[in-house]
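To the structural biology subgroup,

Please find below the input and predicted structure for CENPT protein, which we are adding to the shared reference set this quarter. The sequence is reproduced verbatim from the submission form. If anyone notices a discrepancy with their own records, reply to this email rather than editing the shared folder directly, so we keep one authoritative version.
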Amino acid sequence: PLRLLQSKTVPKRLRTSQRKPHEPQVPRSLIKEIFRHFVKMPVTRDAFKIVEKCSERYFKQLSDDLEAYTHHAGRKTVEAADLEVLMRRQGLVTDKMPLNVLIERYLPLEYRKLLIPIAVSGNKVIPCK
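Predicted structure (tokenized):
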């Protein structure tokens, strides 16, 4: 009689996922907002899909290049110097157009304060390294 009251154990099925791991992507709304800001005219859905695909490939290539520079330097962390080297190789940073000028020209003030060191009263430099 005791055996009838005990619950039976059912073997669990091994659930194997059929899906591939999902890579993080830049949000479509952000890409759309940035692209519309610079284009300043209506964009068809087909054109936007192409822009979205190109930006995805661009950021994938960008991250692969940064990873290669970091491994070449024998580090495991990407540093600002790696990004500057990459931007130099792309022709965005030159002797006439340093990185700080690009930061001042294209980023809002709150990001500029985080990226460019400035001296404040009390002989302090913000942000400190």
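Summary notes: The beta strands are 118-120, 124-126. Helices lie at 2-5, 28-39, 45-72, 80-90, 99-106, 109-115.

Regards,
Lab coordination
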